[in-house]
Structures are given as C-alpha cells and as structure tokens.
Amino acid sequence: MNRLKIYRAFLLGLLILSVMGMYFYIRWYLRTQVPDMVRVGVGEEQTLDLGLKEVSVRVVEKKRVIPGGIPIGIYLETEGVYVVGTQEVEGEDGLNYEPAYQVVQTGDYILAVNGKKIHNKDELIDCVQANQSNVMILKLLRHTEVIQVRLHAVQTKENDYKLGIWVKDDIQGIGTLTYLTEDMHFGALGHGITDTDTGELLNSCGGSLYDTNILEIIKGERGTPGEISGMITYSERHVRGQIFSNTAAGIFGVANQKLCNEVSKEAVEVAFKQEIIKGPAYIRSSVSGELKDYQIIIQEIRLNEDDVNKGMIFQVVDPELLELTGGVIQGMSGSPILQNGKLIGAVTHVFVNDPTKGYGIFAETMVEGR
To answer: Is the pLDDT at 42 greater than 70, yes or no?
Structure first.
C-alpha cells in the first residue's frame, strides 16, 4: 500500500513538473521566437503561423540596398567630453580630496565650463588650469537632461589644478560597411559604438568615414578574439562619408561618391526577418583584400530577441575564411549577411569561446533604424 502511494505521488510530481516545464517553454517560445510585429511587402500574400499570440502586421514597401563588405575608418565625435569616472586627488597639503564626488557622474558629457564650450579633454584641462581653484560651473548632459553643477578644482603639489574626473575624447576605429541605398545613405557596424569602460551607447554630434587599408589580420582563437589591424588616413581627400547618428542598430549617414564607387552596383532586396531560414548563407567581406562571399550556417533565428544585435546565431564553415581569420574577428562588425539573394542581416559580435560562431542583426532592423 505504501509503495502504491509513493508511486502515485511520484507520478503526480512528474506530471506537475511536466506541465510547469511546458508552460515555461511556451512562454519562452512566444517571447523569443514569435515576433510582436512583422512587416510584409505591399501586395504580398504571406501565411504566418504564429501560434497563441497577438501579432501586429505592418505593410511596407519592399526595400533594396547595395551590400557593402568593405572596411571603413570611423571617427565619431561625441558631444563635449565623456566622463568615464571620478577619483580622489592629493592636494598640496597631502590630504586626499574628491571634488567631483556625487556631483559629476559616470556617463555624463561635459559640454561647457563657465560658459565656454568644450570639444575635447585638452580644452577642459586648459579651462581648469586657467580658472585654478575658483568656483567652476560645468554644463553637463546627463541622459537626456542638460544640467549645471558647481565645483572647485584641487591644487596639487605640482601646482596643477585637478577636478578628479576621468574623461575621453572622440572615438576612432575600423568597422565594415553594411549597405548603401540608391540615395547614397549608408548603414554600418550593425551595433552602436559604446564606451569600452561603461558599455553605454555614446551620444554623437556627428563624425566621418575615412579610407582605410588593412595591414594585418590577427586570427581569432578560443578565449581570445582576433582583430583587423589597419591604417586610417585622416585627411580631407580620404573622407568617404558623414556620420549622422550612432544607434543600437549601427551608425548611419551619407556616403560620398568615392565610397559609392568602391562597392558593387548590384542592389538586392532586404529580407523580412520571417523570411530567414536556418541553413546556408554568406558573409560578404573584403578581409582578404578582395571582396568575397564566405559560407556560413544560420543556426538560430530569434524573431523577438530583446537585444537587437543578437537576432540570429551563425557559424562560419568556409575553409578560406577559417584559415584567414579563425571565424569572426573585431573589425568585421557590419559585414553583410546574404541568403537566397537577399540581405538578411549583418555581423555584430563573436562568441569569445568559439570564434567560428557569431551573432547577427536583422537587415530590416538596420534599414528601419536609420
């Protein structure tokens, strides 16, 4: 009798666990695999088997773009100077002070000092030295709010004056052009430019694209991401476009004719995310010095992923690319992903513990995001 009760209790517990598991699986599936909104082309008929969830449908014009794949030099201008953090300063009396503590915050942008606009950290240093220990009024951009704060610099034993604030100037780097439109607008990177210390998306007041040459490929290995090492030529005649915005989906702006001349003229259709299928696809890249398509396998499609930069997971299987880079490396962000003759996405991140695998953003997200 006792054995029978134990057996029944075991079966009941197993049934409860199964029901709970199914419930949480369905919730996960609806949240990550079934989109909240899908786009369909004008005049198209499309059957969507989306299960037990309300989904909004938006009818839009199908878009065509020219895939990129070429490296670009990026110079992003930030509003004022970006605050990375604050610290203590040793004064001339040997005591430690922290003048910016709870006044200036990590992530702030210093726009002006005593009414004088600040463009870079050298200008900030000059203002502090000129003002010495007199009260200073800093104009800050904090999130979306502009505020003013008051503080005094600390005089050091070296007769310098310091605020105890770590700041950064404009950002430079190498990325990949994702696409061009017929009206010469571009999208690149597939992810926003963030501060390496805070991870916050940087507010931009503009910037430029420049011509760049690949000098060295550092191959990716398990636990160590590889990278493209190149030379960016910062001169007026090597400008290739103007950056207008830095968003979570990439950087966007207008290209000049020189950049347009460097990419293929063949436009392709931008795929809707529900059109993407698991299986073979291609990364277009000139990482070898020649623009080529390299085979990958789309392994996972996340139709409702919260992180726009991780809409799909792919694995590089092309022997030539694996031999050259080991898979995905820094600088390949923005490389267009094509499937069935359509632009389906762009490379965004690499799996640090497996450089053959990476994440991609949906192309429709990038094109709509500009």
So the answer is: no
Range of the domain at 321: 175-369
In this prediction the pTM is 0.79
* Letter string b/e over residues 222-261, b meaning 16 or more CB atoms within 10 A of that residue's CB: eeebbbbebebeeeeeebbbebbebbebbbbbbbeeebbe
Looking at residue 16, its pLDDT comes to: 79
318 is catalytic: yes
- Give 71's DSSP letter: E
**185-188 and 171-180 as β-strands: parallel, antiparallel, unpaired?**
antiparallel
Of the residues 285, 333, 335, 349, which is catalytic? 333
Of 195, 293, 318, 354, the active-site residue reads 318
349 has catalytic annotation: no
Q: Of the residues 170, 191, 208, 285, which is catalytic?
A: 191
Q: What is the pLDDT of residues 98-115, one digit of tens each?
A: 999 999 999 899 999 999
Tokens 């054995």 belong to residue: 3
Which ranges in 52-201 belong to alpha helices (H)? 121-131
Classify residue 82: in a domain, yes or no. no
126 is catalytic: no
Count of domains for the chain: 3
